[in-house]
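Hi support team,

I submitted a single chain yesterday and got back a structure, but I'm not sure I'm reading the C-alpha cell output correctly. Could someone confirm the output below corresponds to the sequence I sent? I've pasted both exactly as they appear in my results page.

Thanks,
R.
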Amino acid sequence: MIKRRHSKQIQIGNVKIGGDAPISVQSMCNTDTRDIKKTVAQIKELEEAGCELIRLAVLNKDAADAIKEIKKQVQIPVIADIHFDYRLAIQCIENGIDALRLNPGNIGRTENVKKVVSLAKTNNVPIRIGINAGSLDKNIAALDIPLHEKMVMSAMEHVRILEDNDFDKIKISLKSSSVPTTIEAYRLMAQKVDYPLHLGVTESGTLKGGLVKSSVGLGTLLAEGIGDTIRVSLTENPVEEVSAGYSILKSLDLRQHGINFVSCPTCGRCQIDLIGLAKKVEDALKNIDKPLTVAVMGCPVNGPGEAKHADYGVAGAIKEGYIFKKGEIIKRVPEEDLLQELIAMIENEC
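Hi R., thanks for writing in. Yes, this is the structure output for that exact sequence:
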C-alpha cells in the first residue's frame, strides 16, 4: 500500500484536498468562459464523467462576469484561472468562485495583493500557486541552477507573499512539459512545505503521447506518495482527461472509479477478433461505476486461469468463446454473441 505524504488539508467548495482526503481529479474547460451556455454544458459533461474540480480561464471582465451565472448552474467547485490582473480575482471572488489559480507575485503592487488575499480569506477561497517551467520570472530564469530548482524557488517566493499576508489556504503546482523536470520539482517541493500539491505534466500532447507522459510523470510521484489532486493535460476533449486521471489512480489502487478492465495483448493462439471485442466491452461498461474487474482474454489456455481474479470475463476459442465468473466457466457461446452475453450477465447482477 502506498503511504501518502502528509499534507495540510484545505477545502474547495465541498471537496477536501490533502490530509486524508482522496486524491481528486480535475480538468479545465476549453470553451470561451464568456459563452455561458457552452461552458455550463461542458462542465456538466465533465461532472457526469466524474470530474471533481473544474478550472475556467478568466481573460477579462466579461469572463469574470460570466462566473456568477455559471456557478448557479453547476454543482462541482469552480476555480478561476487568472494572470496578472488583480481586479479579475476580486471580481471572481465577489461572483462566488470556489478557488483561484493565481501567482500573487504577478499581480502588481503590494496593496493589490493585500486586497485579493484579504477578500479570499474573508470568503474562504483557497489559492493555487501555479508554476510553469516556461514562464518563470526573468531573474530566476537567468540563474545557473537546474530548472526544477528554479521552479521551486519561484513557488516559494509566491508562498512567502501569501504567508506574509497571513494566508495559508494554499495549493501548489509545478508543471513542465519535461517529465523528469516535473518529477524533480515536485519531489523537492514536497520536502519544503506541507501544503497540498496539484500534479500535472503541462503541454503533454495529444491523446496517445500525452497519456504516456502524464502516466509516467504522475504515476511516479503518486507511487512515492506525492500528490493530492491531479489533472492529466491533453490536447483533446477534456472528458478524456478525467477518464485518464481515474485510470492512473486506479492502477495504483489509490481510487476506484468505474470498472477495472483487463485484456490480454493477443498472440497466435487467438482465434477471435479480440481487439474489436475488447474495445466494445470497455465502451459498453464505461458508465458502470462498480468496483468490478472485467477481463477479455484471447484463448481458453490462459483466459480463465490468468484472469481468475476477475469478477466477469470472456475467453476466446475457435469462432466462439467462454463466459466465466471468478475463474469458473459459466457458458460457451458463439463469437458473435460474446459481447451481448457478457454485458447481459454483468447488468443483471449489478
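A quick pointer for reading it: The chain has two domains: 10-251, 260-349. Let us know if anything else looks off.

Best,
Support desk
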